[in-house]
Amino acid sequence: MSHDPDHDLAATVTAALQHLDGRAPGGPLDAARVRRAVRRRRLTIAGPVAVVLAVTGILAGVALSGSRGDSAAGPSGTSACAPLDTGPIPLWARSGFTGDSYPPFATSSSGNLVAIVFGDPLSAPPADDHNNKILWVYRGGAPGNLDVTAHREGSDQVVHRQIPAGPSIVDMPAAGCWVMDLQIGDHHDRIALRWTAP
Amino acid sequence: MTLGFDDYLATHGAALQRYAFVLTGNATDAEDLVQAALVQAYRHWRRIGKMAAPHAYVRRIVTGCFVSQRRRRAWTERPMGTVPDVADPVDHTERVADLDAIVRALDHLTAQQRAVLVLRHLLGLPDGEIARELGCSVPTVRSHASRGLHRLRELLHYPDLEIDHEPRP
Questions:
Q1: Is A147:A182 a contact under the CB 8 Å cutoff?
Q2: Which of B69, B58, B82 is nearest to B33 (CA)?
Q3: CB-based burial of residue A101 (10 Å sphere; 0-12 exposed, 13-18 middle, 19+ buried)?
Q4: Which regions of chain A are under pLDDT 50?
Q5: Does residue B5 sit at the A interface (CB-CB below 8 Å)?
Q6: Closest chain B residue to the Cα of A38, Cα to Cα
Q7: A138 phi/psi in degrees, rounded to 5
C-alpha cells in the first residue's frame, strides 16, 4: 500500500482539531448579555441621530431650551446611557481580577474599552460614602492617557479631561448622562456613563 | 414554527462555543467571537428563528465574523517565533507533541485557510457548503484548503523556519 503524505497530514489535522474541540470551554451562553449589547449599540447609534435631529430642530426655530436642564434624557427622549452591565467582565479585561464577582461595567461603542465602575453609583457632586473610581481597561494594552471630551446629554455642557490609564477618580460637574468621546493614541471611541445626584 | 433565541442558545450554545474555540484557538477570542456573532444574529432573530436550520446560519455568521475580525486585526498582530520540533509525524509515541505543534501551526494560517480546514476536517462539510458559508466559490475553497495544508506541511517539516510574516487575511 502506498504511503500518502497528504492523507496523513489531513488525518493529523483532523486529530488536532478534534483535540482543540475537546478542550473548548463550556458553560451556558448568556442571552441577557447579548440583548444588553444589542440595546447598547442601538442607543449608541440613536445618540448621534438624536443630536442631528436636535440641531435641525434648532435651525428650524424649534425652542428646545425649555427641555434642557438637569434632565439626563436626550433630546429624543432616549438616553445613550444604558444600565451598567452586571455580568462577567470580558475575559480580556479580567486579568487583574480574582474570583467570580465583578463590579459593574460599561463597554465602549467599539467594544475595545471597558469602564469598570468601582464607585457605583457614580455621583455628582461626589457622594460622602464612596468616590467615583473607574478602572479603564483598553483591549490594545496600556493606553497611556485617555483624552476625553464629554458632553452632558440634553445640555450644552462640555468637559475636557485627560484621564490617566488604569484606575482614576472621575468627578463630573453635574448629574446626568455623560457621553464621552475618547482618544487613545490613534484610536477613537465613545462611552456613555451616568452620574446621579447623591 | 419559530425557535426562540433562548431556546437556540440552550440547545446549540455549546456547539457554537466549541466551533469558535477551534477557529480562534483561545478562550478569550472565542468568547468575543461568539458574542459578536450572537449580537448580529439576535438583530435578525425573527427571521433566523423561522429557518429550517438556524444553527447553520448562525455558524455562518460566526465564520464571517472570524474572517472579518482577523482581517481588521492583521495590522496589529505579528506572530513571531518558531514552530516546535516535531520528531516524526508518523511516530505515535509523539502524538501529543504532534497535536500541539499542529495546533500552534494552525495559528499561522490565514482566517480563510483555517476556517476551511475546520469546516472540512472537523465538521466534515462538503466543499459546496463551505463555499456558501464563506461566500466564495468551490475552487477558492479548494485553494484555501490546499494552501493551508501546504503551509502546515512547511511549518511542520521545517521546524527551524522563522515565522515572521503576519497572517494574510
A1: yes
A2: B69
A3: exposed
A4: 1-2, 53-76
A5: yes
A6: B39
A7: -105, 135
Give the C-alpha separation, A27 to B10, whole Å: 10
Give the integer Cα–Cα distance in Å for A171 and A155: 17
Q: How deeply is B62 buried, as exposed, middle or buried, from its count of CB atoms within 10 A (0-12, 13-18, 19+)? A: buried
Burial of A76 (0-12, 13-18, 19+ CB in 10 A): middle
A52 vs A189: CA distance, rounded Å = 19
Total residue count of chain A as it appears in this document: 198
Most confidently predicted of A130-144, A163-177, B12-26, B94-108:
B12-26
Contacts of A172 (CB under 8 A, 6+ apart): A122, A124, A132, A150, A152, A159, A178, A195
What is the model's pLDDT at position A52? 52
A-B C-beta contacts closer than 8 Å: 99
Which residues between 62 and 91 in chain B have a beta carbon less than 8 angstroms from any beta carbon of chain A?
76, 89-90
Task: With both helix axes pointing from N to C terminus, report the angle between B27-43 and B54-73 in degrees, rounded to the nearest 10.
Answer: 120
3-state helix, strand, coil in chain A (%, to 5): 25, 25, 45
Confirm if A197 and A124 have CB atoms less than 8 A apart. Answer: yes
ipTM above 0.95, yes or no: no
In the prediction, which pLDDT does B141 show?
A: 94
Give the model's pLDDT for residue B89.
40
CA A27, A31, A33, A38 dihedral sign is positive
Place of cell 517539516: B157
Work out the pLDDT band at B22, boundaries 50, 70, 90: very high
Q: How far apart are CA B67 and CA A143, in angstroms?
A: 26
Name the closest residue on chain B to residue A30, using Cα atoms: B9
Q: What is the pTM of this model?
A: 0.52
Q: B76 falls in which pLDDT band (50, 70, 90)?
A: very low
Q: Are the Cβ atoms of A19 and B103 closer than 8 angstroms?
A: yes
User: Of A146, A153, A136, which Cα lies nearest the Cα of A181?
Assistant: A146
